[in-house]
Design the sequence.
């Protein structure tokens, strides 16, 4: 329940991970929070119609887990109780980087709790349902924002309720967690306001997913693991974009996702799937699944582009409206950043609202403050995925003039991480969204990277294959 409130009613459009996290952030600051979701929400961990990507591999990085735990005290406890698999980073995860090799599986002491997207979403929704001033209205589709005549202030939402009746809901603040920002963009267009500039990286990503029973000859007691519990085999750009990921999920199963970019389409049949596994840069995943029992069919998904809508660059923005999560930035999903960034944005929103509670008009300038302060949350993950994606010649997007130097620097950084545990730990903290990229810009780390760059120039064979 809220303490010192800054408004009577907030509405969140969308009950995905971004919307649920946002509801948790708003609950302490508004008398009432309503979450509008067009889907009928399942009572157990199964995919829902409005989230077709939920049938595929999702990872909630430790940085995202911590953000959700800050918003919901019982989140991690309930996730473990629901059967998610604890994976100790990076002891239990084998990360295979082409041209560099497998990174050492050092134990940094953080846990990543692996489970399907439906399980993670269900547990998050249960946290929200514990909040007595939050109502989730399922089967309720928001189709229009109401606003002042000049579009400078949003006043609520027009929605179609579960009975097919139109209803107008007034609100002090509307959070657009739809993922596509459709309500926000429609309002800006209808009132003659500028749309945000979009940074688009055309990846034409296709991936195929299935599940396997974990063989009995591997450990099924997660506190006594085999050589690895999860594995990711990254593609060797620019020659080909075959990538594979095998992660444990609830029910003693592996979820296997194979991806390809720029026209490469991972097969959706047993023989083709195994053939694709053999074409990965290492045989690790193929050896794991070749004799394993497949327990599900094949699911496919296509994402044409990663998109970052630069709301932060707009000079003005309607009061009472705030996009969040994928509505601002949709990342390449193979890097597992989307849910975690949305959770961190929601935690930031909670912090900003706390700091504004004593102001005469707490909602004035809220969007501008949020866009500005969320930039570091978005920039790091975006750069970590954009640079590797742009390594493929067919990827659409603007490359910086010194792009090849960026690629070489990244390879040298990974090499330094193999050789130096302290560098590896800092790199892992950045990758897991536990720390900003600036922690890698110390004279010590940059000196080690420059040494590796010099070695790579004089002896290219130095890179571990």
Sequence:
């Amino acid at each position: 329940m809220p303490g010192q409130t800054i408004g009577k009613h907030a509405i969140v459009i969308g009950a995905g991970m971004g919307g649920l996290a946002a509801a948790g952030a708003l609950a302490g600051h508004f008398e009432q929070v309503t979450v509008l979701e067009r889907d009928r929400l399942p009572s157990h961990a199964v995919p829902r119609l409005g989230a077709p990507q939920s049938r595929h591999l999702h990872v909630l990085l430790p940085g995202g887990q911590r953000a959700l735990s800050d918003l919901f005290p019982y989140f991690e406890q309930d996730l473990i109780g629901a059967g998610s698999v604890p994976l100790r980073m990076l002891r239990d995860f084998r990360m295979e980087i082409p041209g560099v090799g497998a990174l050492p599986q050092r134990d940094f002491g953080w846990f990543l709790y692996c489970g399907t997207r439906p399980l993670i979403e269900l547990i998050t929704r249960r946290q929200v349902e514990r909040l007595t001033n939050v109502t989730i209205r399922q089967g309720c589709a928001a189709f229009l924002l109401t606003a002042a005549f000049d579009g400078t202030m949003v006043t609520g939402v027009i929605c179609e309720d579960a009975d097919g009746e139109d209803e107008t809901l007034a609100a002090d603040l509307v959070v657009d967690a739809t993922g596509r920002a459709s309500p926000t963009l429609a309002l800006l267009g209808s009132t003659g306001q500028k749309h945000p500039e979009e940074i688009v990286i055309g990846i034409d990503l296709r991936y195929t997913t299935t599940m396997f029973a974990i063989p009995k000859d591997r450990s099924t007691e997660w506190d006594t693991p085999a050589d690895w519990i999860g594995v990711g085999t990254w593609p060797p750009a620019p020659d080909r974009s075959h990538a594979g990921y095998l992660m444990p999920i609830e029910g003693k199963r592996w979820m296997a996702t194979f991806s390809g970019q720029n026209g490469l389409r991972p097969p959706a049949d047993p023989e083709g799937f195994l053939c694709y596994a053999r074409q990965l840069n290492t045989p690790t995943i193929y050896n794991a699944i070749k004799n394993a029992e497949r327990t599900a069919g094949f699911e496919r998904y296509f994402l044409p582009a990663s998109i970052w809508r630069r709301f932060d660059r707009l000079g003005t923005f309607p009061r009472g409206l705030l996009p969040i999560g994928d509505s601002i930035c949709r990342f390449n999903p193979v890097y597992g950043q989307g849910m975690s960034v949305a959770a961190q944005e929601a935690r930031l929103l909670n912090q900003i609202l706390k700091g504004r509670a004593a102001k005469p008009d707490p909602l004035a300038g809220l969007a501008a403050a949020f866009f500005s302060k969320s930039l570091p949350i978005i920039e790091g993950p975006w750069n970590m995925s954009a640079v590797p994606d742009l390594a493929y010649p067919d990827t659409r997007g603007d490359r910086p003039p010194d792009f090849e130097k960026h690629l070489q620097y990244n390879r040298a950084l990974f090499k330094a991480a193999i050789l130096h545990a302290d560098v590896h730990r800092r790199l892992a903290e950045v990758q897991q969204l536990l720390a900003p990229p600036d922690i890698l810009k110390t004279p010590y780390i940059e000196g080690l990277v420059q040494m590796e760059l010099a070695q790579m120039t004089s002896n290219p064979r130095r890179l571990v294959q």
Observations:
- The radius of gyration is 23 Å.
- The chain has a mean pLDDT of 93.
